[in-house]
Write a structure and sequence with these properties.
The structure holds two protein chains of two kinds. Chain A has two domains: about 1-50, no CATH class; about 95-150. Chain A is about 80% helix and about 0% strand. Chain A has five helices and no strands. Chain A has helices at about 1-15, 20-30, 45-50, 65-70, 75-149. In chain A, helix 1 (about 1-15) packs across helix 2 (about 20-30). Chain B has nine helices and no strands. Chain B has helices at about 5-25, 30-45, 55-75, 80-90, 95-100, 100-110, 115-125, 130-140, 140-165. In chain B, helix 2 (about 30-45) packs across helix 3 (about 55-75). Chain B starts with a helix and ends with a helix. Classes of the chains: A mainly alpha, B mainly alpha. At the A-B interface, helix 2 and helix 3 of A face helix 1, helix 2, helix 6, helix 7 and helix 9 of B. Chain B: This is RNA polymerase sigma factor.
Chain lengths: ~150, ~170
């Protein structure tokens, strides 16, 4: 009868050397209603294993919270973005400032050159009038000669 | 990873995590909290989930480590609390009624086993994992698993015989 086999399986079971199918066989046997008296003592073990496997985890996981965490992950990057903006600003700002300064210098230079040119013109003008003063001598002398005649 | 994808991975084994946690922590609420915390940890790592070849075994190992840490800090910190919890449980009428049921003897007997034996018995005889998986989950060698399993089964049998012979309940 199969009782022999069950007893052999049981002793193997307590040595920890049964396979999963063999253990399934044992479980099936002990879940039956009619079990010989000398084996009835083992029954609570197998019934308990089966019963406890029906316990369930009933809590709901608050997985949505994780999305908020995800958005918070960006916060450290804000400082990076800000410093990049500042650097870009400095880079282009410096260029713009330098350009303005250059324009100013050019204008100053042009002003100086123009002034120099005008000064030169004025100087030559006055020198010119001096020469014309000599001409006046001529005119006077000529008129004296004309008047004598 | 989407929530639904994560739940699809986790749902088949979340009850097993809970039952292992309950085996170790005994209290139902603590086991629920522990399981929730472990699953949330797993969710926070969900991007890496593809790189674990066995998510279930990984989660089991997490559960084992988490609960053992819990027990350690409990022993170190609030022994009193544990004690009062235990008394409360013992005095509740429902528990007393349950204790009369021969099946819950087994539960009581398992509570007294060393942690390692509890876990091995839980994973093998309740969850029906094969030895390789149990070795991976508990980070133990195959021979150590077999020895612990054999001891646990024999211890349960011995206690069960005692109760049976003295006719408690």
């Amino acid at each position: 009868m199969e009782l022999d086999r069950i007893e052999k399986l049981l002793s193997k079971y307590f040595e920890g050397s049964t396979s999963l199918p063999e253990e399934a066989e044992l479980k099936a046997f002990f879940l039956q209603d009619d079990i010989p008296a000398h084996l009835a003592e083992y029954r609570p073990m197998f019934t308990y294993f089966k019963k406890t496997k029906q316990e369930r985890f009933t809590k709901v996981l608050p997985l949505q919270e994780e999305k908020k965490l995800n958005s918070k992950k960006w916060i450290p990057w804000l400082s990076v973005a800000a410093s990049v903006l500042i650097m870009v600003g400095l880079f282009f700002g410096k260029g713009y400032y330098d350009q303005k300064q250059l324009e100013k210098e050019k204008a100053q230079y042009a002003y100086k050159e123009t002034k120099k040119a005008l000064d030169m013109l004025a100087e030559n003008f006055s020198r010119g009038t001096e020469k014309v003063a000599y001409l006046n001598e001529f005119v006077e002398a000529k008129e004296k000669i004309y008047n004598k005649n | 990873m989407q929530q639904s994808d994560f739940l699809k991975i986790v749902t088949p084994f979340q009850d097993k995590l809970y039952r292992l946690a309950k085996r170790l922590l005994v209290s139902r609420e603590e086991a629920e909290d522990a399981t929730q915390e472990i699953l949330m940890k797993l969710w926070s790592k969900s991007k890496k989930i593809g790189s674990y070849n066995n998510v279930e075994a990984f989660a089991m190992t997490m559960t084992k480590n988490f609960c053992l840490d819990r027990l350690k800090s409990k022993q170190a910190g609030n022994l009193k609390l544990v004690h009062s919890n235990y008394r409360e449980e013992g005095s509740s009428l429902q528990k007393q009624v349950e204790a009369n049921d021969s099946v819950t003897w087994v539960q009581r007997i398992m509570e007294d086993l060393p942690e390692q034996q509890k876990m091995v018995l839980q994973l093998r005889d309740v969850e029906e994992y094969d030895f390789d998986e149990i070795c991976e989950m508990l980070e133990m060698k195959p021979t150590a698993v077999r020895v612990a399993l054999s001891r646990a089964r024999k211890a349960v049998r011995e206690k069960l015989m005692e109760k049976h012979n003295y006719g408690i309940g």
